[in-house]
Amino acid sequence: MKKKHEKYERLLDRCKLLPPTPTAVAHPCDKSSIQGAVEAAELGLLTPILVGPRGKIEAVAKQSGIDISSYEIIDAPHSQAAAEAAVRLVREGKGEMLMKGSLHTDELMGAVVARDTGLRTARRISHCFIMDVPAIDRVLVITDAAVNVFPTLEDKVHIIQNAIDLAHALGKPQPKVAILSAMETVNPKVQSTIEAAALCKMADRGQITGGLLDGPLALDNAINLTAAKIKKIESPVAGVADILVAPDLEAGNMLAKSLSFLADADAAGIVLGARVPIILTSRADSVTTRLASCAVAVLVAKFRRDSGGEMAA
Question: Is the overall model pTM greater than 0.85, yes or no?
Answer without folding.
Answer: yes
